[in-house]
Amino acid sequence: MLDIKFIRENPQIVKESLKKRNSKFNLDDFLKLDKERRRLLAKIENISAEQNKISSKIKKLFKDKKEPKEAINRSKKIKVEIELLKNEFKNIDKRWREKTLQIPNIPDSSLPEGGALANKVIKEAGKKPTFKFSPADHCEIAKRLEIIDFKRATKITGSNFVCFKGFGAQLVRALLNFMLDVHTQKNSYLEIWPPKIVNQSSMQTTGQLPNLKEDMYQIQDTDFFLIPTAEVPVTNLHSNELLEEKSLPISYAAYTPCFRKEAGSYGKDTKGLMRVHEFDKVELVKITKPENSYQALDKILSDACQILDLLKLPYRILLLATGDISFASAKCYDIELYAPGLDKWLEVSSCSNFESFQARRGNIKYKDSKTGKNEYVHTLNGSGVALARLIVAILENYQQGDGSIVIPKVLRSYLGGRKRIKK
Fold it and tell me: Per the confidence metrics, is the pTM higher than 0.90?
């Protein structure tokens, strides 16, 4: 969340931010609510102070053996008035807190303005393959090689769920182990195996709630949610904690399954592995001092790209525009892989700096040795990377004329030395 003091002192900056994001949040209504909340709070404090004075006066009157009736009657009236004010404040405070959770982060000034069409390609890497045949898409390849069973997955659960089998299942396992090994052994991330179910407070910290609730899987009659990404449990490892300055930066890597309803996917391409409700992902999370967070963002982006470089896949990096970044993000890069069978660019990673936005919601601080004050950390994350579309890219880029798939060299040791996937 944003610093409430900053909002009060800089309403025009916040309004401009909301406009850039195409947000419908009404800041004027919120500031009126905030003003009323502060008025009631000040009134309660003033009357409570008067109550304390009268209580002291009553004690003195008893001590001096004087008549306290008038003071007692006044005390009773104040108690009733305080109770009424507290009830009024409670209702307004609830609305105020709900509203603060609906204000999005302020986009960094380096972002292009506009929606998705304003996203800026800042780098293209790798070489698109050339074929002497018409390249098949991943659905056709998977069916031919019998490595993914879409029909039986639909029978078991429903549409947009996947069942990998045989070499398909082995490829999933190989990719997960490969990515974790790179991030933990080469890039010094500490591996985490977090819970896959989190509570509402954790979802609020990272910004999935309340705005993205329709896209989340909540367990009926509980406060629990299936995680949409490892970002949620891993960032919340340090919620309500005061970290030591010397422990920063903190770098975590975690593999988890991820669960999303994809409620906003109507009209989008949902074919095969394009948009599934359950997928696997290796997530990178960093917690830093504020002055180091944009350097950390570059590092996360580089670490995610390293996976694709090692797999020798063609990809590009996009700097997202103000109207396309996530609710909690201040700056975000998307990494997209090229899929020749579909002839499309597919997002496989988003690398974001949330600055202090998540830390304020989760109360994550560190003690600054220079000022002696407790300051909010900056949090960042990036997919390193997401699996479903990564497999699409591998199948489509490495397909051969005989119908087989050449296994990227870096994965072969994870697959018993196998060089190709054949039927």
Answer: yes
